[in-house]
Amino acid sequence: MKNLFAFLCLFTLSVSLQAQNFTVSGTVTNKEGKPLEGAVVALKKTSLGTTTSDKGRYSISLSDGLYEITCSFVGMKSETKKISVSSNLVINFTLSDTSEALDAVLISAVRVNADSPITYSNIEKEEIEERNLGQDIPILMNFMPSVVTTSDAGAGVGYTGIRVRGSDATRVNVTINGIPYNDAESQGTFWVNMPDLASSTESIQLQRGVGTSTNGSGAFGASLSLLTDAVSEKANGEISNSFGSFNTRKHTVKFSTGKLDGNFELAGRLSKIKSDGYIDRAISDLSAYFLQASYVDDNTLIKALTFGGHEVTYQAWNGIDKQTLETNRTFNPSGQFTDENGNERFYDNEVDNYRQDHYQFHWNQKLSDSWTTNLGLNYTFGRGYFEQYKEDEPFAEYGFDEIVINGTTINKTDLIRRRWLKNDFYVINANANYKKNDLEMDFGAFLGVYNGDHFGEVIWARFASDSEIRDRYYEGNGKKNDLSFFTKATIRVNDKVTLFGDVQVRNVSYETSGITSDLVSFNIDENYTFFNPKAGINYRIDVKNSLYFSYARANREPNRSDFENNNNVKPEQLDDFELGWRWNNESFTVNTNAYYMLYNNQLVLTGALDDTGTPLRTNSGKSYRLGLEVDASFKINNQFTIRPNIAISTNKNVDFIASKDGSLVDLGNTDISFSPNFIAGNIFTYAPTEKFQVSLLSKFVGEQYMGNIDSGTSKLDSYFVNDLNLNYEIDMNSFFESITFTGLINNIFGEEYVSNGYFYTYDDTWSNPGTVTTIEGAGFYPQATRNFLVGMTLKF
User: Fold this and answer.
1) What is the rounded radius of gyration, in angstroms, for the C-alpha atoms of the chain?
2) In the chain, what is the straight-line distance between the N-terminal and C-terminal CA atoms, in Å?
3) CA-CA distance, 266 to 301, in Å (whole number)?
4) What is the mean pLDDT of the chain?
5) Rounded to an integer, what is the distance from CA 68 to the centroid of its chain?
6) 14 near 632, Cβ under 8 Å?
7) For residue 75, what pLDDT is reported?
8) How far apart are CA 443 and CA 503, in angstroms?
9) What's the CA gap between 554 and 597, in Å, rounded?
């Protein structure tokens, strides 16, 4: 309670502080002097912003201080100015046509702006760079509203995960330049396959709830849109190195030629990340690359880019039981076996080994002042395996025949197996944007074609029977086609009212063949057609206040694991209602929204894992999430900034039925798994100079259940962690443009906490013959105590 009290006091203090107000206003025009309606005027490193009226006018109320104010408009070059506010100011912007701004067209169809009735948060490149020392993108997003993150290895390198509003990664739609990144079959997002992607990310937008129509599987908790590096006007380079606890190190080299002859640019990045992990043997050996060639002129942007990664990570998804958590919290049971002499050992290559390459082509074209188009093509090639040492495995599970040696029948063996996934993913994505006067429309079509092979090999066996090298003991295939069309419209009725409408039709077909790793025939042939309407209204009360309301429907198909565990699994449906208030006042902004998410056949996590560490899900019938989210940004003065957020919610399965002691029991309304009722975060920043800043980042996550039956065994305790982030930049006059020193102390108070785990039940029928007793168990993924990362970045 004291942690919660501290957060509420800090939040109340932020709201109550006041400062003298001044007005910064002006007009935004193009080179010909024509007013630009709908241009976005915003303050960097804050959530304060507004859009221009039909006469190109804007007005923002600020307290005295130094600011960076930026103006942007689709299809035009953004402009940033540094201003000192001590009285009312008039700041005008004149934007020019440029293909640099056409970068935004890549993701305009799946993003929203300040006047949209959608709940969202943005992270810009500058903020990403402040803590980019090797940890993955989910960890960098940890302090956003309603976000909970976790790491298998405990320190943010390797396998990491994110939940938003209690929804896991399979329900968070992720796109990179408008192209789906979620795996088509599992619907999961494996950030470990794209190491150091943060170093090539221009901006991130997180839309909570259903959000706007997007490509790929529908968003049931959030959608996450990433835009990779924009075209650079000038040649530049960057060398970045960081080191830290658990032998963690990151090495990154970036370059850009700038615009050659005013039209061509070549840019790239190479990255290497290694870490031993907080958990025993949870090593990560990660390599990545990014290469981009661009052609630009006033009306055209053509990008050909390829990026990818290769990860080798020691498995750490087995977790530990409660007793081990209390006595040896870094213990990792993965790879554990007993040798022929009875000695306990650990297999040294119990790893995931996966490589993924992405090839994207984008053609953005400005046809006129009103029309812009985008054509995107993508090919993703993934292949890899996870390797395991297994003891006393029955021959029958691998298709081996019994053998007789010296009169003894052998039907079990120690062996090493690899389970492979090899897949191809093709995408065609086409969008058009029309913007004139008070109307803006987006039209889009998306086609995704996936083909994935699943197979297993035994690469060594103590007794190999009659098997041959590279024999596959199981083999199957999954094919998925995803076709969707959408139309979006934003209508500015007057200076106060903006209407939003969005209609998507999506068709999904999924077909499987072959057998699973359990040697069970697996043949699925399903086809779904979903209609996903969305509508909303934004009402601007005055220059400081606006209200919005939206309704959105989303439908989702089951994933491969759902079908493997239940042939009768059903698609799920969500009706999402969002009511929000945005207040921009001087240097203080607050975004408040209430949401009601009503599910039918929601696929909730059971808490259990399958034998590959994949979380299992089940249809829960009726369920809902009801919550309130508040995030704010307050500039106390030129040195101090506070950015708190809180999320209060109730997340319930309605009349949940579960098996207990051999019979079905109606448990009434139960908490949805992995859905804490209270989440809070805060970033407190002290910047005594423009080149030096210190930030204290705090995160509180309330207690949560890992199952849906409100069992005490499945409960994760609440936790409160704090990180300290330092940045110091030195301008250079020599070969290097600047040197930036970065430091990050994670969990500075050494909190021993657990952010994730699993929960399982099974029926015991042999302890007391004639009776059935339900046994419960749980596993936990402990996170690192105090640890640090330090880095230096040279820019030239």
Assistant:
1) 27
2) 49
3) 13
4) 90
5) 28
6) yes
7) 59
8) 10
9) 11
Q: pTM to 2 decimals?
A: 0.88
- In whole angstroms, how far apart are CA 36 and each of 154, 492, 539? 49, 14, 20
Whether residue 57 contacts residue 36, with contact meaning beta carbons closer than 8 Å, is answered with no
Task: Give the separation between CA 136 and CA 194, rounded to whole angstroms.
Answer: 9
Q: Is the pLDDT score of 538 beyond 90?
A: yes
Query: Please, are residues 143 and 724 in contact by the beta-carbon 8 Å criterion?
Result: no
Output b/e per residue, 495-532; b: 16+ Cβ within 10 A.
Answer: eeebebebebebebebebebbbbeeeebeeeeeeebeb
Place of tokens 């399903």: 526
CB 787 within 8 A of CB 244: yes
Give the pLDDT confidence score for residue 17 in this predicted structure.
44
CATH superfamily of 17-96: Carboxypeptidase-like, regulatory domain (2.60.40.1120)
The identity of residue 80, as a single letter, is: T
Q: Per the structure block, which two tokens stand in for 350?
A: 């119990």
Instruction: Please state which architecture CATH assigns to domain 227-795.
Output: Beta Barrel (2.40)
| Residues 609 and 625: beta-carbon distance below 8 Å | no
Task: For residue 480, count CB atoms less than 10 angstroms from its CB and return exposed for 0-12, middle for 13-18, buried for 19 or more.
Answer: buried
Contact 155, 245 (CB under 8 A): yes
Q: At 257, which amino acid appears?
A: T
Q: What is the pLDDT of residues 584-640, one digit of tens each?
A: 876 788 999 999 999 999 999 998 888 777 889 999 989 999 999 999 998 888 889
**For the chain, which residues make up each domain, given as ranges?**
17-96, 227-795
- Residue whose entry in the numeric block shows the structure tokens 């309330």: 702
Residues 6+ positions from 299 with CB-CB distance below 8 Å = 97, 99, 365, 366, 367
| Closest alpha carbon to 164 in 141, 186, 183, 180 | 141
Mean pLDDT of 481-505: 93
Bridge partner residues of 43 (DSSP)? 69
